[in-house]
Amino acid sequence: MKMNRLYGFHEELVRKRDSTMWRKYQKVFNQLSLCARIGQNILCMHGGISQNCTSWESFHALKKPHTPKTCDDGLSVDLMWADPTQDKCSAFAMNTVSF
């Protein structure tokens, strides 16, 4: 919810529909998986691979964030929002979107 408000999704839905529609979207988003593994070779996520990911077991221990505080850092946030930096081989950074 925090990121959707911060980056304009809330305002867009309220402008086009109403805040009830935004809450319905949030309920759906809260049920989606953070990432998925297809077979043994493909890992899918919205954001990027985190420096907090050390092995496949990192994903098994992963808990979805449910409070604003737990949405500020960690593996789950990186899976949703991290983008590779210019140095593609060494680090990742938070998404920097501007409107």
TrEMBL record:
Q: What name does this protein carry?
A: Metallophos domain-containing protein
Gene3D superfamilies assigned to the protein according to its UniProt record, in alphabetical order: 3.60.21.10
Q: Mind telling me which InterPro entries this protein's record contains?
A: Calcineurin-like_PHP, Metallo-depent_PP-like, PP1_catalytic_subunit, Ser/Thr-sp_prot-phosphatase
| Any one annotated GO CC term | nucleus
- Domain (Calcineurin-like phosphoesterase): residue spans on this chain: 10-83
Q: Per its record, what are the GO molecular function terms?
A: protein serine/threonine phosphatase activity
SUPFAM superfamilies, alphabetically? Metallo-dependent phosphatases (SSF56300)
